[in-house]
Design goal:
Layout (H helix, E strand, L loop, with lengths): L6 E12 L3 E11 L6 E12 L2 E7 L4 E3 L4 E11 H13 L2 E12 L7 E12 L15
Antiparallel strand pairs: 1-2, 2-6, 3-4, 3-5, 3-7, 7-8
């Protein structure tokens, strides 16, 4: 059986910590499995942009099991430079919706031999109050 890729949405983003050199953010992705069987999202390689400014890129830290026709969350830990935050500053001060784009590839399967990768891209808007409040829904899931 060939698995269809999960649907991916950004569920929230928060500032976790500020250091002398960069900001640590956390984000939650919601993954929905459209298949009639459970799948494992082994890894996500991603690039996150806010208002056309690349904020972070990297790999997920853990795999997530998705039940048939069910969803689960995948946490991401992001690190970004203060320069990126300064570039976003005028948009953050407006307190309006901020466009985001997250793209990359998702790797399904529980082993290197039984895995398959799929590209993904999701666009939406982010309520800036979510930068300080954990896990509020962002955008809409199909």
């Amino acid at each position: 059986m060939r698995a269809e890729p999960p649907e991916i949405a950004l569920a929230g983003i928060q500032i976790e910590n500020l250091t002398l050199s960069h900001a640590i953010l956390s984000a939650d992705l919601t993954l929905f499995n459209p298949n009639d069987f459970a799948i494992t999202a082994r890894e996500i390689r991603y690039t996150l942009s806010l208002n056309n400014i690349t904020v972070a890129h990297g790999n997920s830290l853990q795999s997530v099991r998705l039940p048939a026709h069910g969803s689960n969350r995948m946490p991401l830990r992001l690190s970004t430079s203060y320069l990126n935050l300064l570039r976003l500053g005028p948009h953050i001060e407006k307190q309006g919706p901020l466009p985001y784009e997250i793209s990359g590839e998702i790797i399904l399967g529980s082993s290197l031999l039984g895995s398959r990768s799929f590209p993904f891209e999701k666009k939406g808007t982010l309520d800036l109050s979510e930068l300080y409040e954990p896990s509020a829904p962002v955008g809409d899931m199909p």
